[in-house]
Amino acid sequence: MAEEGSASDDKSQAPTGKRLQKAREEGNVAHSRETQMFLILSAFLAVFTMTTAVSGSTFLRHMRGLMEHFDTVSPDGGALYLALQQSIREGILLAAPLALVCAVVVVVSGLLQTGLLFRPQALIPDIGRLSPLSGIKRVFSMNNVIEMLKSLTKFVVFGAVLYGVAKGTLRVAPEAERWTLHHLTSELISWFVYATMIILMIQAAIAVLDEVWTRYHRLQKLRMSHQDIKEEIRQEDGDPKVKAKQKQIRMRRARQMMIRAVKKATVIVTNPTHYAVALSYDNGTDAAPKIVAKGADEVAARIREAAEDSKVPIVSNPPVARALYALPVDSEIPPEYFQPVAAIIAYVMKLKTPGSRAPRQ
């Protein structure tokens, strides 16, 4: 029993397409936060670089205006409030393009990784998530531990980069007092772009590793056992017992239809034991005899029994029986068989006199 249990828990098989689709519908998709962060940083740096000239000049013009009129500001606070309000407005206008682009990148990167996925059931509150025990388990889960270690590593690496840039910046700090405001702003922007580019390259490497790990980890969690695959096949194809029952019903209905067709047949042509073909022909309406039922071995025996019960003539003609058996049911016989079949039907018609019996072989 223990061996059977361990075998059933052995998730050694790759997930099937149905398993992956079901996981996606449940919200289990490969989503790398590091890839999203890389795209956001890339967009931020691109927009910042393209808008630096305009935003920098606007900022400098605003600051120069404040400095020039600072000594004329009324001490009552009203002018200070207006100046502060204008500064906030200018800051919002400068930051709006960056914020808008970053918001768009967040949405687009999510769609690129997961596609358009809407889960109404996610809006339903889950009472189980309010359990303190469940919360503790989530906090100390392996995924959260990995995320924490990853965040600490990024903090150390990015901190080292910023420290290196700041250290280089401090070397020229004594000269900064002789710089103009425009030159100082340009230097600060250059240092900021340089540090951001280094962080972006590091983030790119982290994003590649995280993307590979995220997809691998998701596939590992979705792996299936042999029993899981068998159960999925059973659900797709149906329960074998139910399928067998349905097959029995179909066969029973087919036999009933065959018996009804045999009862209305004009003649049964046999092999005499291996094949039996029931022909129907109405001289007034049919252009040619039609095959209404056929069978081999056991089915042929049932056709003969039904014919005997219904007093339908049975004629033994092995060559004709074998030839007609190859034709589909409900089809008219082809012209090459008209002559032998016509002879059989003519023979049967002669036998249909009061008191006559169908010939038996």
From TrEMBL:
Belongs to the type III secretion exporter family. GO terms for cellular component: plasma membrane. Residues 1-28 are annotated as: Disordered. Pfam families: Bac_export_2 (PF01312). Keywords: Membrane, Transmembrane, Transmembrane helix. This is EscU/YscU/HrcU family type III secretion system export apparatus switch protein. One of its GO terms (biological process) is protein secretion. The keyword DNA-binding does not apply. Coiled coil: none annotated. PANTHER family: FLAGELLAR BIOSYNTHETIC PROTEIN FLHB. The chain crosses the membrane at residues 37-60, 92-112, 188-209.
